[in-house]
Design a protein that fits this description.
Helix content of chain A: 10-25%
Structural class of chain A: alpha+beta
Number of strands of chain A: 7
CATH architecture of chain A: Roll
CATH topology of chain A: Thiol Ester Dehydrase, Chain A
Radius of gyration of chain A: 16 Å
Oligomer: homotetramer
Distance between the termini of chain A: 9 Å
CATH class of chain A: Alpha Beta
Chain lengths: 135, 135, 135, 135
């Protein structure tokens, strides 16, 4: 299991007139959390793309327990429970400044070769970085 | 059952560097679909808010079957399978210009009184408009 | 001179906690207005891109006279005062439902060849469509 | 004169299919830069709002010199050249990782009392924090 935490401050751009973070903006937080989780492993999503492998989202599930409010510094805890294979499943728990769990999410991404648009297995370099957490 | 269709054209603002509509932007499409489904019933989401009832999203589930591409005119078919009570569940099927199903989604929203932040039942005026579709 | 009008309904996704359309979202409206102005001429921005010419924004100026509010149907009046050459300047006037001018904007875009990243003149096909309006 | 620097990493959510940061997303960067410039002074935009004063944007001017690319860590240098009075003018210079100036912007905001929707002078508490930089 690999767990990583990232912080995100809610911006005016994220809020809506209800005074909440708009429900569509959590996708940005998940994206940041995933990419920073990879970066902290020493793995660059950008370089993976440059090597010809993309990671489009296949499925997403979100539960909005309590609102995220303007200027709050949120903590996003990202968990990879299973080693990526043909797909990679990320779980997120988002906590507000009072350490209350306000949101959970789960995203399934696949690995796709840019040149032929075909699904592929997770890159070996990524699996190598994750090795210590799944043995 | 109540079914409604809305069109949405994919904009540059919606795309990402993969050339797809960014996965977080489907939330905007769902929102448009819900509000226009209500409007076509003769029910205004805006007026509901002005009367003191909000509809925050509680849960969302999305499946990304194939990408939505720049400038495509999408059709969003919105279905209310069950009459709203304390919550309201919307199902969406999104079709591209070739009439291929590229995306499905399901959003659960609750009704909330603005003044005391408490959950309430669906407004009577909304239920009245939906009556013919659930009898 | 070429003038075109497009409508846009303000969505929850566009609002912020001030209850206004967020100032960054006007860029989306300008984009829609430009592309629809071209489409109404019988010219497709998408096809221009496919032919290898992009139109990145070089400069933008916006004046926020009064807020755009949730669910308002705005009218965006787009004007090309000068025939595009190496650059194209679009002017926008945005009116709310009461026909009050709430916003003005001006965007300068350039034409760029995708293959060599160099500036080019406006495509002949576009100029041909605009011909009747500038003679 | 008050100068402050903030970093921002370009996300997939920010990019468009041209592979650039979408031109509308710079507004988010300006917002972050302004609020963090205030925070570094010991002044909270959020608390100002809670005290009843809003800062809507009145005017914005942007120049897009070169694209911001995915995953780049940008530096936004924010400058207040003049002490805020009835309006506050922020200048931004955005540099990429190679320290190349890729973007400049200028935003004029006004101070507005929430209760009566009237323009007011800059709050005394803000001016006090800025005092050392303008004497």
């Amino acid at each position: 299991m690999y767990v990583h935490e990232t912080e995100y401050r809610v911006r005016y751009a994220d809020t809506d007139q209800m005074g909440y973070m708009y429900y569509g903006n959590y996708a940005r937080l998940y994206e940041i959390a995933r990419v920073e989780a990879f970066r902290s492993l020493g793995y660059s999503y950008k370089e993976m793309e440059e090597s010809g492998v993309l990671m489009p989202v296949y499925e997403n599930h979100s539960r909005f327990i309590a609102p995220a409010l303007y200027d709050e510094m949120l903590t996003i805890r990202t968990t990879l429970k299973v080693k990526p294979a043909v797909r990679s499943v990320f779980n997120y728990e988002i906590f507000n400044e009072k350490n209350v769990l306000i949101h959970t999410g789960e995203t399934t991404l696949v690995f796709l070769r840019k040149d032929n648009n075909r699904l592929v297995a997770a890159p070996a370099a990524l699996l190598l970085k994750l090795e210590p957490y799944f043995s």
